[in-house]
Design goal:
577 residues, alpha/beta, DNA polymerase, domain 1, Beta Polymerase, domain 2, 5 domains, five-stranded mixed β-sheet, 23 helices, 16 strands, 41% helix, DNA-binding, HHH_MUS81, nuclease, exonuclease, DNA polymerase/3'-5' exonuclease PolX, transferase
Length: 577
DNA sequence: GCCGTTTTCGGCCCGACTGTTTTCAGTCG
């Protein structure tokens, strides 16, 4: 059984937890945790490198972790890890999911009561054995039971579309409060992560205690988790935790920067501040002659850095780039001139062709690519050859009758990639289309190798314009298919196939972590909403945010081309694109 | 365990809040 990147990261994370339980040096614990983060985010085939024992010169992975990852990659196991966890069942690790319980308390529960799973903890609480432990009490015991109940039923992560709606509502309320001078969302939502675990809000006010009180009484506050003079956490009906920090107006830029994160980005920023002779925290700079700061950008400026857009703050090279004045000028959604991959009532869409066209134009777009499903997706009412041929005529007629200078429809298809990598339509029909999106919709359990070959074969077809939702993931619902991103990106560069950034918030696929690499290989991105209704065309706004997170510039995104240029580009043979 | 424009040894972020304490430990972000 070959070791995966995820397995390697999980092993390091488990080691961190187990060392923490044993009361090991917290910095050693952190080193393992950071090692796991490096493994997860590494840009390249880290498993192959570990196997070849070539993990050198990677920040955060020293000699010890290099050797351990090598052992894990070559033997499938790690002796150090095996020994550490010998005394604990798999179920033990569930305990860390519970709110309010950390390594110290879990270690004590384990030592005193033999607790080694959520089930045994529940039993112990119900038998009133937990309240008597030193450091525990009746309240803690009740909270543990609450937390167990919540974990059993509530969602712990939320998609960006769901979170955005909730955040906008709350921000609106905060901004309406007369004592609020400035208010912003911070945290992972501001960094445009694909899913968020909580929402963070920062307000500038001279009445912090009044604001935390106000926050705790919002209609959204189904439950108050903590309430103090400067911070408050609530939970909404849907189970989404929302945190508020109330600070003074002069502290606001610092709090905004600090709580936007990421943690890794902030660690690096703070150590840079130390080199300038200042200490930086969520309230300000301290030290000799601290710089004047009015806006968040002033913090970066004071450290000799260009302003780093929140989407990039993941400690993936943005600080070095900002230092060298080499941050990319990121795409903005207003740069988009059109979009592809949309569905109509002809397959499984909810809106007609005419309605989709009108909505796209309303949004300020100059073109819309229609790509209904193909016949191998009968569940989506996919079109056969005859229906597709008819749709091509319909679109041509629409363009003649209704289009005017400055807007047109492009005829396309979301063609199924069949199990062997062949396509659902023959080349003759594909050649009549303005564009095509090739996607996998069935036989999704192939091995990584087979799936990768299948997709690459489809990309080699001269009439395939772009690859649709590369991994097929449905966020929080279905895992990605096994695919080799590196190989597919290389093949896209080779065959001049565009890769789609499917910005339906259920997908956001290809994942943002891979775009920087794709861009550097010269692969173009198309920001496509996979819209099944007129409203969903607006998903391209999420798409632009995610593209920013992937370091993409205007010139890296196909659908920033204006209509005339786009029309010409689509006529070019692939190898000349 | 990792790292290096103070350092190959000695640092590595720290403040708010809660509950159990009677001055503080643990958790969280």
């Amino acid at each position: 059984m070959p070791v995966t990147r995820e397995r390697m990261a999980a092993v390091l994370e488990e080691i961190a937890l187990l060392l923490e339980i044993q009361g090991e040096n917290p910095f050693k614990v952190r080193a393992y945790r950071q090692g796991a983060d490096v493994v997860k985010g590494f840009d390249g085939d880290i498993v192959a490198l570990a196997e070849a024992n070539m993990l050198t010169g990677i920040k955060g992975l020293g000699d010890a972790l290099r050797d351990k990852l090598h052992e894990l990659a070559t033997t499938g196991e790690l002796g150090f890890h095996k020994n550490l966890r010998a005394d604990y069942p798999d179920s033990f690790f569930e305990l860390f999911e519970l709110e309010g319980l950390g390594p110290k308390k879990i270690a004590l529960l384990n030592k005193e009561l033999g607790v080694n799973s959520i089930g045994s903890l529940k039993t112990a609480c119900e038998a009133d054995k937990v309240a008597g432990l030193s450091g525990f009490g009746a309240k803690t015991q009740t909270k543990i039971l609450d937390s167990i109940a919540r974990l059993a039923q509530a969602a712990t992560a939320f998609r960006i579309d769901v979170a955005t709606l909730a955040a906008e509502e709350i921000l609106e309320e905060l901004r309406r409060h007369p004592a609020v001078l400035r208010a912003s969302v911070a945290g992972s939502m501001r960094r445009a992560k694909e899913v968020v675990r909580d929402l963070d809000f920062i307000v500038a006010t001279s009445e912090p205690a009044e604001l935390t009180k106000f926050f705790s009484t919002l209609p959204q506050a189904k439950e108050i988790i903590v309430l103090g003079d400067t911070k408050c956490s609530i939970r909404t009906e849907a189970g989404l935790q929302c945190d508020l920090r109330a600070v003074s107006n002069s502290q606001f830029p610092f709090a905004l920067q600090y709580f936007t994160g990421s943690k890794e980005h902030n660690v690096a920023i703070r150590s840079l501040a130390l080199k300038h002779g200042w200490s930086l925290n969520e309230y300000g700079f301290t030290g000799e002659n601290p710089p004047t700061v009015n806006e968040e950008s002033d913090i970066y400026k004071a450290l000799g850095l260009d302003f780093i857009p929140p989407a990039l703050r993941e400690n993936r090279g943005e600080i070095e780039a900002a230092d060298a004045g080499k941050l990319p000028r990121l795409i903005e959604w207003e740069n988009l001139r059109g979009t592809f991959h949309t569905h109509t009532t002809e397959s499984d869409g909810k809106s007609t062709l005419a309605a989709m066209a009108a909505a796209a134009e309303e949004l300020g777009l100059q073109y819309l690519g229609i790509s209904d499903h193909s016949k191998s997706s009968p569940q989506a009412n996919g079109l056969d050859q005859a229906r597709l041929a008819a749709q091509i005529v319909t679109i041509a007629n629409w363009n003649t009758e209704f289009a005017h200078e400055g807007f047109r429809l492009f005829a396309g298809s979301e063609v199924d990639i069949l199990k062997d990598g062949s396509l659902d339509f023959d080349d003759e029909l594909l050649a009549q289309l303005d564009f095509t999106v090739a996607s996998v919709h069935n036989a999704t359990t192939l091995s990584e190798d087979e799936m990768t070959k299948r997709i690459i074969r489809a990309m080699e077809n001269p009439y395939i314009t772009m690859l649709g939702h590369m991994t097929g993931r449905l966020l929080l619902r279905r895992d990605a298919y096994a695919v080799n991103h590196e190989k597919i990106i290389d093949a896209a560069a080779e065959t001049r196939t565009v890769i789609e950034l499917n910005c339906n918030p259920k997908r956001l696929d290809m994942d943002w972590r891979w775009w920087h690499r794709a861009r550097d290989k010269g692969v173009l991105c198309s920001i496509n909403p996979d819209a099944h209704s007129t409203q969903q065309i607006q998903f391209i706004k999420f798409g632009a945010e995610v593209a920013r997170k992937g370091w993409l510039r205007r010139e890296d995104v196909l659908n920033t081309k204006p209509l005339a240029e786009m029309t010409e580009w689509l006529k070019l043979p692939k190898q000349r694109r």
